[in-house]
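Box 3.1 A note on notation
Throughout this textbook, protein chains are presented in two layers. The first layer is the amino acid sequence; the second is a token string describing backbone geometry. Keep the layers aligned when reading.
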Amino acid sequence: MFECMALNADYQWVSEHRIIKSTTGIIANVRHDHVEQLGSALLQIARSLSSTDPQGRPLYTAETNPEVVNVLTKEIKAVDEEILRTSSDSITDDDIKGFHPLAYKTNIAHSLEVSMAHGVGKEVALEAMRKTARGPGASKIHCHERNDQKLWWANFFGVNDVASAEINIDKILIGWAMM
């Protein structure tokens, strides 16, 4: 699996259509991320991200904003590709056992659906995902003990937009309330 790290739409297109040539594409969500390069409006960002669509291959998204979905659908169908909507509703509490508390259910759903579309069984895919090391930029929760006191802190340095930060903060607050 590769993540397109190009921010300029032209570089995204070259990355996908000249270098990577994906078998499957995923646009997990469209958020106010890298607005200097992708545009300040969600619809601009959606158009820019759609340049990573793999030619003649399916594109998965869990985006729920109807206007953004409309733009993605229009851009994808313009090049004869299929858009497949994924939802974290397909992920049960049992499915997410063993994942990091800050793991995104939508990302698990994307990975699971793509794995199953390529012939990997659900349990095999979930177990492989659980065993996979988290990326270096992934949000983490740390606990340091000193003088019989605990200091908890969350590393959100890899978070690029307000919506993602809010989701991570909510996860921590909900988890903290359950402790």
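DSSP finds eight helices and five strands in the chain. The first strand starts at residue 25 and ends at 27.
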